[in-house]
Amino acid sequence: MNNEELRKEIERLTEENVKLKQEIAKLRSVKRPAVSSMDTMSTKLKEALRE
After folding, report:
1. Which residues constitute the domain of residue 31?
2. 2 by DSSP, 3-state: which?
3. CB of 9 within 8 A of CB of 17?
4. pTM for this prediction
5. Helical spans, DSSP H, in the chain
6. pLDDT, tens digit, for every residue of 1-49?
7. In this structure, are residues 36 and 28 in contact, taking their beta carbons and an 8 Å threshold?
8. Cβ-proximal residues to 9 (8 Å cutoff; 6+ apart), any chain
9. How many structural domains does the chain have?
């Protein structure tokens, strides 16, 4: 590979890296509320079972 090909490959991989980081951030933000709602459901279930 010559220098020009390597630069293009670095540019392509850098763009892919940015896209993947954005996707990870999006998935993390989706996952967190789901976990907290599960905790809330567990708490409500525990309270209902106590009554």
Report:
1. 3-49
2. coil
3. no
4. 0.53
5. 3-50
6. 799 999 999 999 999 999 999 999 988 887 665 555 566 667 777 788 8
7. no
8. 1
9. 1
